[in-house]
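Need tokens for this chain, all 193 residues.
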Amino acid sequence: MKTKLIILSLSPLCLLTFIKNFKFICKTDEGQILNRIQFIETNLLVLIFLSGCFLWCIISFFIYFHFKFFVSFGGKGGYTIKEIKEDKEAGLDFFLTFILPLLIGDLNEWQNMFAFIVYFIIIIILLIKTDLFYKNPILTLLGYHVYKLLFSDNPKIKEGCIILTSVIITDADTIEYKEIAGNVLYAKVLKRR
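Here are the structure tokens for all 193 residues:
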């Protein structure tokens, strides 16, 4: 599920890259509008790249529904919370740190496209090696919350963990959770005091 959430978290970058770089009308230097064949011939590399971005967005759409299905079944429950703190800037931090810097270049230049691809790969490697994928801007836009918490009675998770949830959780709640990856969990409220 971690890999799928990484793909989902980078979908805004692919969507914005597609919107920013797709040329709906392409003109020559003399002002003539290119026909379809001329347009494809002059922009083939960019069109292939943007097709990949569009495909990434479509795959992300299906991943979101898979995530909804994943978190709706199973889980370990009945654990009370000792300490909890909401990370309200998680999605914004991710967007400003990883996505916004990549939107400055024009992909019609080979060097900018190569730099974009290298930067994109570096981001994916960093997200795989860390647990920053939970700062997913898509989940934030869809109303999910990110919490850092400690359980008071869970022998399996003695140190802090990160919770993704679609509801507001307080330290008075008893929750059920499902592990996404490492110390990143998805939680539902079982009982409120």
